[in-house]
Amino acid sequence: MSTASTSEDVNFNEGLNVLSSYLRERNNKSYRNFLLQNRDTVVTSSLLFSKNWRELDNSWAAHFLTEARNLLDRNNYDILNEKVKLERFRSVDYLKSYWEEVVQERNL
Prior knowledge:
Blueprint (H helix, E strand, L loop, with lengths): L2 H23 L5 H7 L1 H7 L7 H19 L2 H17 L1 H15 L2
């Protein structure tokens, strides 16, 4: 395994650890707030398999919800799942800008 690949794996795992901590520690969970509060970690841990903002957002939202499913009871997960859908629908312009900036920062 190459050093770059190993480094990216470590960074990605760090991102998942931060995500898990956020979901365990926050009472008022929010996908958008997670992205905002953990921007530096998201930038360094994003595996840029794509430069398409929507694919990156879909990937992180899926990780967010998968980890939430592992940590929360069914009712709280269902509530958060609906909240994430609504946040992503209402915040399309913000998310597009956010992920385009992540791609730019990673490509510097």
